[in-house]
C-alpha cells in the first residue's frame, strides 16, 4: 500500500518546513496537475492550422473535406478521452467506458487512414495495409480488454 504523498504536509509543518510536499509517482493521476501546458496548446494550434489548410487546399472535394474534418474531430476526441482516462481513478467503473471510447476512436482513425493509404497502393500492398490495420486493432483490443495488469505472485 503506497501513500499518496511522500511527505505529510502536517509533519513538514511540525518540523518547520514550509516547502510543498513531493508527489509520489505511484499516486493516482488525479493527484497530478492536469492543466493544459503551452506545448499542448501549441500542438492543438498546429493541428487546427494544418487541418484548416488541408480543407482550404481541397478544392471543395467533399471526400477530402470529410476525411480532414473526421480525422480532426476524432483526434481531438481521442486526446480528450485519453486525458479523462488519466484523471479517472483506477477503481472507477467509468474507466472501462472511457477505455472503450478510446479504443473505438483509435480503431476508427486506423480504418480511415488505412482506407486512404490502401486506395493509392497496388493490390498486394493493399492487403498488407489492411492486415497491419487489423493487427493493430486486434492488438489494441487485446491490450485494453483481455490483458490483465495484475502481477502474478512469484512462486518459489
From TrEMBL:
Residues 1-10 have a biased composition (Polar residues). Coiled coil: none annotated. The chain crosses the membrane at residues 36-56, 62-82, 102-121, 127-146. Residues 1-31 are annotated as: Disordered. Pfam families: DUF6490. InterPro entries: DUF6490 (IPR045501). Keywords: Membrane, Transmembrane, Transmembrane helix. PANTHER family: OS02G0216300 PROTEIN (PTHR46610:SF7), OS05G0181300 PROTEIN (PTHR46610). This is cDNA clone:001-038-D11, full insert sequence. The lineage of its organism: Eukaryota, Viridiplantae, Streptophyta, Embryophyta, Tracheophyta.
Amino acid at each position: 500500500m503506497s501513500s499518496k504523498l511522500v511527505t505529510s504536509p502536517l509533519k513538514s509543518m511540525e518540523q518547520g518546513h514550509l516547502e510543498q510536499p513531493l508527489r509520489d509517482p505511484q499516486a493516482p493521476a488525479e493527484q497530478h496537475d492536469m492543466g493544459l501546458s503551452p506545448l499542448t496548446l501549441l500542438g492543438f494550434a498546429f493541428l487546427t492550422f494544418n487541418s484548416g489548410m488541408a480543407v482550404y487546399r481541397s478544392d471543395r472535394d467533399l471526400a477530402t473535406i470529410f476525411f480532414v474534418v473526421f480525422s480532426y474531430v476524432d483526434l481531438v476526441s481521442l486526446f480528450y478521452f485519453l486525458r479523462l482516462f488519466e484523471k479517472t481513478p483506477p477503481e472507477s467503473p467509468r474507466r472501462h467506458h472511457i477505455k472503450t471510447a478510446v479504443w473505438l476512436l483509435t480503431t476508427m482513425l486506423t480504418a480511415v487512414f488505412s482506407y486512404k493509404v490502401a486506395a493509392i497502393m497496388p493490390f498486394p500492398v493493399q492487403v498488407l495495409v489492411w492486415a497491419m490495420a487489423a493487427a493493430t486493432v486486434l492488438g489494441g483490443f487485446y491490450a485494453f480488454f483481455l490483458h490483465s495488469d495484475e502481477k502474478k505472485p512469484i512462486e518459489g
